[in-house]
Amino acid sequence: MSWWSRVANVFRGDRLNRxxxxxxxxxxxxxxATGRDESEARRALGTHVRHREEGHQTRVIGWLDSLxxxxxxxxxxxxxxxVTSAAAILSLALAIGACTSAFRLMDALLxxxxxxxxxxxxxxxWRETAINGAPYRYDSWAYPSYQLMRDAVKDHAQxxxxxxxxxxxxxxxxxxxxxxxxxxxxxxxxxxxFGLRPALxxxxxxNDDRVPxxxxxxxxxxxxxxxxxxxxxxxxxxSLRIGSDLYQIVGVVxxxxxxxxxxxxxxxxxxxxxxxxxxRKDAAWMRTLAxxxxxxxxxxxxAKMSAISLAFETERAKSFKDxxxxxxxxxxxxxxxxxxxxxxxxxxxxxxxxxxxxxxxxVALVLLIACANVANLMTAQAATRAQEMALRVSIGAxxxxxxxxxxxxxxxxxxxxxxxxxxxxxxxxPLVVSMINPPDDPARLMLPGDWRVLxxxxxxxxxxxxxxxxxxxxxxxxxxxxxxxxxxxDPHGRRRGMYVMIGAQVAFCFVxxxxxxxxxxxxxxxxxxxxxxxPENLLLLDTVAQREQPASVWDQAVEGLRGVSGVEDAALxxxxxxxxxxWNNFISINGAPPxxxxxxxxxxxxxxxxxxxxxxxxxxxxxxxxTTPGAAIVNxxxxxxxxxxxxxxxxxxxxxxxxxxxxxxxxxxxxxxRSLREPTLPVAFIPRHEIDASGVVQGSTEGTFVVRTEGxxxxxxxxxxxxxxxxxxxxxxxxxxxxxxxxxRDQTIRERLLAMLAVFxxxxxxxxxxxxxxxxxxxxxxxxxxxxxxxxxxxxRIANIARLVTSEVFAMVIxxxxxxLVLGLLAAKYIQSLLYGVKGNDPATLIMPVLVLLxxxxxxxxxxxxxxxxxDPAKMLRAE
Length: 880
What we know:
There is one protein chain. This protein has 880 residues and is of the alpha+beta class. The protein folds into 5 domains: 3-60, no CATH class; 64-112 and 347-487, no CATH class; 119-346, no CATH class; 490-532 and 742-880, no CATH class; 538-711, no CATH class. The strands form 4 sheets. Strands 4, 5, 6, 7, 8, 9 and 10 form a 7-stranded mixed beta sheet that branches. Strands 15-16-21-18-20-19 form a 6-stranded mixed barrel. Strands 1, 2, 3, 11 and 12 form a 5-stranded antiparallel beta sheet that branches. A hairpin with a 2-residue loop joins strand 8 and strand 9. It is found in: Cell membrane. It is a multi-pass membrane protein. Its main location: membrane.
């Protein structure tokens, strides 16, 4: 009989049994035909049952047939215990799904190799130094410095220049059709070095890297080509404009490459030589990637590039004037490091690397809690099946056979849970991604369900089965028939194992609740941090012009906005607060050399202070005649930092090597400049009108109108204000509209996400731990009913019964809580960089999880205590 036939026979048992029965009867008939008596023939052939068993064994694969029987039996067991099985499957599904979802996010952002050649030999070059004793690292470079390093190490590595992918205004027609796309400037040699091919047209090459502004070509990503142009092949040859530069589309890069910045899908690739900063030695704006040749050691390569970088910075430093010695020392003591970049490089990685690691730990703890819960459940079920197992052993079942039978049930639970988990992970991972970054520029991660995710899921199922199923299976298979048939083994040993599991669940649960408390406190303190201005009802209109517009045009636009119905006030600034923009410089006080502390600057129009409702502590607001250089308004931190807390009004300072002077005319309340997280910075607000050496007011190509509306919904006026600006000043175009409240909320996106996820997992952990504690106590009461009945008959009170029921378990709860406290304090040190205004050893953060766990334990223990107190002594004694 063929192997395939034996496999098929496993799944057609009834038909096989009929065939064996027919074959037996055929043998009987043949014996009768030879003249033998029917009864004699049947005795000679043996019993029908023996013949069927022998025939069955020879026509099937034994282990597969046993597995089929175990699956059928396991399914009956799951149906028999529907409630407990459903609870176990749902808890496992939630835990497995959360783990898989976390893996998808971490893999997509941090681990998944770029779809390029030589990803395993791709590195990002960083610089490390210390400024005022604090470590500082960054990976931005000036292009002339990159050129020197590229030429020096070309025999050992291929260097590539790539800019971060930035959301940029561009148009394929008139300014009225302006749209936004993610644009990345790259070395022309990048596509060839990465082994990329065009889906249409051609890609950039080394000829596009030779002369600045000489290669006005653009390559589209396949994703953008599909979304924006519907894969129209006629896109080749079309033109697009960015600023004043006109580019010709020459190709589309094939899938799956979408850029080098995980979390951002690049839409348009431009030659690095088309960037206006490419010739500047004082502008560090691009990354340097290195594809190291096989066999080249990183140490000597890094040292060579470090020497070239140092020589470049030393030469550049000769042009510095009045730069503080600490800053000069930091620049000239930079060390280069090469960080593996096979998975790409992006700011999103730096921002969320540790946060995703914490989420991964939380979901792993929830998984362990779920596994401990199900293990306790199966241990309790195994106790009720002790006599069944004893009978199986008595009739010849081996221990391996029993282990396989119990493990099959565990595998079935894990498989059913994994199916639900797959749906949960498929839905939840994109949901979490949608919560990252502002709504107008959300993160975009590729989340394919490929072999990496499938392999992780299969491995996770195996681990889960081993975690919750192996110990109960081994314990059930080790049953001793004599003890079991006499009434079972000592239940205290089994309960002790379950109590240990409870202690582990409590420890893990404490850590999850503790970390959730830290994240919630961080979010609350950031969200309620004093701002120093009123962000409500503030509408921000980022506006650009193709050519420089006189200051009078911008002033007229402000006045026009003030005349719109529903507008309370309006002003103009270079960039909004908390918008991420930054302009700083070293300043000089009373003619002294600049110090090591920088001041930040922001250009604003008259009445900007009033429009922002920023309290003016002393002095006055700007007037129409104030210019830069000339007048300045500073914040409290500026006064404390540079004037030692004295009233700064009337005093002067200078910037840019003491060539640009200001007189302070006012002081305002502190307000966050670019981030809620960082300490308050010294800030000087200066007039929007800047005059050159000849006294002529300079124009501008961009600015942000700040409009305070009268209604509670400022966005209701967005369309009207956009049209008003364009109608009155066609040369101005509103490129983006936001509210100041959106910028404030964007500052806490990561904290809000961590708080939401941590609270969710804390709730799941508490629920699972509570169910586990209830299950153990319920099992304990069932095992000790006779004891409780006797004690009640002898006069024991409810309080005594409650103490007997809960004392051992609550001891494990306290022990688990102590272990969890230690683990939580260790975890708090790891996540300190994610916290704000709270520390792990704060009394409030330690008391909260203790109270929550005690309340959950008391609530879970109540049903078991009531059940024990209601035991009928007479019924127990009669049963005995």
